[in-house]
User: Which sequence fits this backbone?
């Protein structure tokens, strides 16, 4: 349950991409609690319907928005349909992402292109037509779900990190060029968040311990930890926030674990 209520978000038309599960689903549910009309996007219709039903069951308003936003034609058609039916689009939360694990020497061209399409290019596919509509209606807010991978390389995830780094710069360019037109663009960088995608990996006690030891708050996050940051950035309370990157990672990027462990044994007591 979202603790803080933003009256400025009530009745807004909000599109959340990749919202059928995980972080995207948590964000969609949170906007539903705020009284917004949530357009739930994913390529999987069944999962989209489940999220829509959850929002409606909680007293909110939601509709399905099934499309592959990695496909430019599909993304543009989706935005056009939303505007035609609702007359406006106030918020875009660009969350769609995939994270295949493959060594760089074994990566195929198809893997590379798919990651770029979903993780980076989808922001352009959706963001440009959304921004045109927002400019026409007098403003709007775009929040891009980034990653610490935009700044750090991960083992076997070079295509993910490269796509997130490109996504970060695209978002900053949008903030710079579209800010004067009334469209604010900001980035939220979640750290280790418990989702279906990493639950099996984190189920190994040794892995979980090693992960949490890199996080100053000594725990992984939940989708419910990310959603409040997104809500705030889209609210009138953040009306002067543009081009910001908000890390929701428990302090993951604040430093690095020491390799001289004995010197700092007191920190573990």
Assistant:
């Amino acid at each position: 349950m979202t603790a803080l209520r933003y009256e400025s978000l009530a009745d807004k038309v909000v599109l959340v991409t990749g919202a059928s599960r995980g972080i995207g689903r948590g964000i969609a549910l949170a906007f539903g609690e705020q009284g917004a009309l949530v357009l739930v996007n994913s390529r999987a219709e069944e999962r989209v319907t489940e999220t829509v039903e959850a929002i409606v069951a909680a007293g909110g308003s939601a509709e399905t928005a099934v499309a592959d936003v990695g496909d430019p034609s599909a993304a543009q058609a989706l935005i056009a349909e939303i505007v035609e039916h609702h007359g406006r689009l106030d918020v875009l939360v660009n969350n769609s992402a995939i994270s295949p694990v493959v060594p760089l020497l074994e990566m195929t061209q198809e893997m590379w292109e798919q990651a770029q399409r979903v993780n980076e290019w989808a922001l352009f596919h959706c963001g440009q037509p959304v921004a045109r509509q927002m400019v026409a209606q007098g403003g709007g807010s775009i929040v891009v779900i980034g990653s610490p991978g935009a700044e750090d390389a991960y083992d076997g995830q070079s295509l993910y990190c490269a796509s997130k780094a490109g996504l970060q710069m695209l978002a900053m360019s949008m903030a710079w060029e579209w800010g004067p037109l009334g469209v604010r663009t900001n980035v939220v960088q979640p750290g280790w968040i418990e989702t279906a995608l990493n639950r099996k990996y984190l189920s190994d006690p040794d892995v979980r311990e090693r992960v949490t030891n890199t996080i100053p708050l000594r725990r992984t996050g939940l989708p419910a930890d990310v959603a409040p940051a997104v809500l705030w950035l889209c609210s009138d309370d953040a009306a002067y926030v543009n081009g910001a990157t908000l890390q929701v990672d428990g302090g993951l990027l604040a430093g690095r674990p020491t390799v001289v462990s004995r010197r700092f044994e007191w920190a573990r007591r």
